[in-house]
Amino acid sequence: MTDVIVNPIATSTVIVSPPVGSTSSSTTVSVGAATTGPQGPQGPTGPQGPSGGFFTFTQASPASTWTITHNLGYQPNISVVDSGGSQVEGETVWSSPNSLTITFSGAFSGVAYLS
Predict the structure, then answer these.
(1) Residues 13 and 30: beta-carbon distance below 8 Å
(2) Is residue 35 part of a domain?
(3) Residue 31 domain-assigned (yes or no)
(4) Which of 16, 46, 58, 79 is the most exposed place for a label (fewest CB within 10 A)?
(5) Model pTM score
(6) What integer pLDDT is reported at residue 36 of this predicted model?
(7) Would you give the DSSP letter of residue 84?
(8) Beta strands of the chain (E only): which ranges?
(9) pLDDT surpassing 60 at residue 74
(10) Quick one: DSSP state of residue 73?
(11) What separation in angstroms does the CA of 12 have from each of 7, 25, 26, 37, 52?
């Protein structure tokens, strides 16, 4: 016995030939389109996702460590710009889903944009 796998989208008729030397004749088989069963019940509602919000933090006085409480409920993306308008990178530690600390190599004032 040989298994035959047919793509019903590509063809609607398959001709199955017997092995060489057999006295059986070929058989034609019609391939129907796949059908789906009834839809099952709706599953339970999942947990609420992040707010998708944003938060702006202003560090008014120069500091090398900025502690930010944002209350976004997740670890946001962070972009920091100093008071001169240059983008600055620091080492970020997320202490909770609602707060973080950024440590820089030197003290400066500026703005952190969180999203």
Answers:
(1) yes
(2) no
(3) no
(4) 46
(5) 0.56
(6) 81
(7) T
(8) 13-16, 27-30, 55-69, 78-82, 87-88, 91-96, 99-114
(9) yes
(10) S
(11) 9, 20, 17, 21, 49
Residues contacting residue 75 through CB under 8 Å, at least 6 positions apart: 94, 97, 100
**Residue 101, burial from CB neighbour count under 10 angstroms (0-12, 13-18, 19+):** middle
Read off the DSSP letter of residue 32. P
At residue 48, the pLDDT reads 77
Q: Is residue 98 part of a domain?
A: yes
Contact 65, 101 (CB under 8 A): yes
Amino acid at 3: D
CA distance linking residue 78 with residue 85, whole number of Å: 15
* 26 close to 67: Cβ distance less than 8 angstroms: no
d(CA 28, CA 4): 13
